[in-house]
Amino acid sequence: MLAAKFSDLITPQLGHQLHQRKLLNLGFMVMGLVAIMVALFTLAALIIHMAMSGWPRLSTWEFFTAFASRRPERAGILAAWVGSLLVISVTAIVAVPIGVAAGIYLEEYARKNWLSELIEINVTNLAGVPSIIYGLLALGVFVYEFKFGRSVLTAGCTLALLILPIVIVTTRESLRSIPQMVREAAYAVGATQWQVIWHHVLPYSIGGILTGTIIGLSRAIGETSSLITIGALTFIAFLPESPFQGKPPFVSWEWLNSPFTVMPIQMFNWVSRPNPEFQVNAAAAGTVLMTMTLLMNGLAIYLRYRLRQGIKW
Questions:
Q1: Predicted TM-score (pTM) above 0.85
Q2: How far is CA 119 from CA 27, 98, 125, 170, in A?
Q3: CA distances (Å), 146 to each of 138, 141, 142, 143, 150, in order?
Q4: Ranges of H-type helices in 59-151
Q5: Taking Cα atoms as reference points, which of 177, 165, 166, 164 lies closest to residue 206?
Q6: Are the CB atoms for 97 and 162 separated by under 8 Å?
Q7: pLDDT at residue number 253
Q8: How far is CA 187 from the centre of its chain?
Q9: Burial class of residue 311, CB neighbours in 10 A (0-12, 13-18, 19+)
């Protein structure tokens, strides 16, 4: 009876407007689906073409265990992928603690006034600053002012600056998604503010924080312009000193001061050469870099799924 009364309220003009809106929604849905499919097919075609172009080098184990060379058939990516792992390790060690701590402070402790709003606006805008600007900043601060040199430490700190806004924003969004009743229940049994954050809010939001951090690191591992600005080398025929030693103190930090190269810079060097054989090497290195990025994004999706699986509000 209620449905019959509601249908009686729909005039022919209102029914025509509802029909137009349904058609409009259907049109936008089809356009969005077509745009997504075009983007996915284009990306898949590029990846497949790159992998097929670089397969002659990917099929040889020497490509992963050899240093760069002037002869394309002997050139490898050993220094590049080791350098990428070292630089991204320093980036994570620097960016994650600072970014998470800043996000917790801004979301849980900072008073809502003009200063906190100004910081929030600047952090959000910094996420869109071109990476070469961070390179120029790092060149002046880390290389010339702090005397770090053109080293792994400088590169890691530069990329940490690049992803720091992403980590802060992601941390704040993850903390904000926790229902207020969780905090109120903890306060009701006498917990302090830090105990509420450490024992209740942070464990529930760790999935979102990890996801944002890994996605930020996957962006950093493909950065080129900022590292070229600070003076990364394009030809290295040695590896940094091992962080572990056979005699006390068993740990060495000399690798932080070593020159470095990374996968994107190695690709840039090969692409700029006229010999077509180097283009094959560049395609192979690009496939390896794309695989590393997709694996990191896949890990982020898996962790997000696993950590949210047991949470029910």
A1: no
A2: 40, 15, 10, 15
A3: 10, 6, 5, 6, 11
A4: 62-65, 78-104, 114-126, 131-138
A5: 177
A6: no
A7: 81
A8: 35
A9: exposed
pLDDT of residue 168: 92
Q: How far apart are CA 80 and CA 75, in angstroms?
A: 11
Single-letter code of the amino acid located at 181:
M
Query: Which residue, among 48, 88, 89, 85, has the nearest Cα to 64 in the 3D structure?
Result: 85
Distance CA 238, CA 253 (A): 17
- Residue type (1 letter), 64: F
> In angstroms, rounded to a whole number, what is the distance separating the alpha carbons of residues 152 and 260?
6
Both tokens assigned to 110? 């900072």
CA distances in angstroms from 101 to 29, 98, 108, 283, listed in the order given: 40, 5, 10, 40
CA 53/CA 50 separation, integer angstroms: 5
Residue 245, token pair as written in the block? 């030693």
| Residue-level pLDDT at 214 | 86
Q: Is the peptide bond before 249 cis (omega within 30 degrees of 0)?
A: yes
- Cβ neighbours of 93 (radius 10 Å): 12
Helix ranges, 139-222 (H): 152-176, 180-188, 193-196, 202-220
Whether the Cβ atoms of residue 215 and residue 46 lie closer than 8 Å to each other: no
CA 310 – CA 263 distance, rounded (Å): 38
Burial bucket for residue 149 (CB in 10 Å: 0-12, 13-18, 19+): middle
User: How high is the pLDDT of residue 312?
Assistant: 66
The low-confidence residues of the chain, meaning pLDDT below 50, are none
